[in-house]
Predict the structure.
Amino acid sequence: MDLTAAARSATPSLLLRISIAVAVATILMKTAAWLITSSVGLLSDAMESLVNLASAAFALLMVTIARRPADAEHPYGHHKAEYFSSGFEGLLIIVAALGIIWAAVQRLLHPQPLGQLGWGLTLSVLSSALNGALAWAMLQSARQHRSMALEGDARHLITDVWTSGGVIVGVGLVALTNWEWLDPAVAIGVALNILREGAHLMWKSSQGLMDEALEPEVMAVVDQTLASFKHPTIRFDHISSRRSGQRRFVDLHMHMPANWTLRRAAAVRASVEQALMSAVPGLRATIQLLPNDVEVHSQDEEDLL
């Protein structure tokens, strides 16, 4: 069985439900590891899993909203709801990181010995393996479905895996050296990495909410498709694009001879729109018909005055 194909075919909703179940399991394992060892590093790992649970639940809600059909109040659909999920997840990551830093600083000021490290590390490794496998599957599906919510949750899980890896190394070094300060020091380093990931998610979410243009590789496909229709009597200009969750939009002008009938012009336009939407999944193309001797210029700058 092709695991990559299976992961890509899994729906975002299904994977987010699995993510919630895995988050509950890892919270139990990591909390047990912290209680056994009294490691502030393992405590930080458990706090990260609490964030995983909250963010997965919120992501599932946003994915459900994003799948709603367009209505009178939202004629372009609800696809941007996924960007709220990613931004919320980034905020939770930052809050968790600040909490980890606070706990680690307290442990630096008041060191405590660690105990029963074998069981604690075993539980942490098992939970990290669960998160790593789920994150890989979610990234595959996120690329297939162009789901920002799923990608955000997957990258958060990857951050959690790195967090656990750093904590395991730190706790292991404490066991070898008896340097108790290594445990909170590693926790602080892990928290700084989490802060970076949270800031990245919030930035990416903000860019999506501001109607970012289509990816360069997608625009290359659009340009290639339009080039196949170019003719001495047909040309395209004023091409603009934007992304909205899983949907993509492109608007352009198509110039053609003024003596063409409306039926003929509309037929050519329909062919171009169909070709664009076939070449780029999830694309909605809007084409304005103009005679060759008419030029339309953007009024955006004047509208801002």
